[in-house]
Amino acid sequence: MPVKIRLQRHGRKGYAYYHIVIADSRAPRDGKFIERIGSYNPNTNPATIDLKFEKALYWLQTGAQPTDTTRNILSSEGVLMKKHLLEGVQKGAFDAAEADVRFEAWKASKISNIAKTKEQLVAAKQADAKTRLAAEVEVNKSKAAEVAKKKADAIIAANPVVETPAEAPATEEAAE
User: Fold this and answer.
1) C-alpha torsion sign, points 8, 10, 12, 16
2) Quick one: CA torsion of 130, 135, 140, 142, rounded to 10 degrees?
3) How many domains does the chain fold into?
4) In 10 A of CB 174, how many CB atoms?
5) Can you give the CATH number for the domain in which 46 is found?
């Protein structure tokens, strides 16, 4: 029986999330499966992956073939790296302790890269919010200036200019 590690679609239209399952390759995509080993939600930033690491490693070692997308998921979670290191131990290239040290070093660098990416996303979001706030403040200032000008024009229109007595003799002298 050819066994595959693949994604099973769930969710509504336009907002899909997936279960990572072990299934017979002849079974329908959303049909019968042997075991569920995790989930994948591409709607979050970064994508959320919940995986039973040991089960995925077990199925890979027993010969289950991952699909392309599932291979990328397993690779990003380190299952393929661990499988590669365990094969090196079986061949005698290095011992199990060295394999664990290499895997932990890889895992630490992966976690630091993810943390750095999340920090950059947060910083970009904050910078965008600051620029939008500054633009909104400028728009509000220009609107306030326009409103003040309209109010001043309305006050002038409501109160016509009255001649003062000092201006009247000046006009009479000019007339003579």
Assistant:
1) negative
2) 150
3) 2
4) 7
5) 3.30.1320.10
Span 101-159, pLDDT tens digits: 999 999 999 999 989 988 999 999 999 999 999 999 999 999 999 999 998 888 888 88
Return mean pLDDT, the chain: 89
Residue with tokens 């002849």: 26
Q: Quick one: tokens of 18? A: 């997936």
Buried b (16+ CB within 10 A) or exposed e, 115-148: eeeeeeeeeeeeeeeeeeeeeeeeeeeeeeeeee
pTM: 0.69
Q: Can you point out the beta strands (E) in 13-123?
A: 15-24, 35-41, 48-51, 65-66
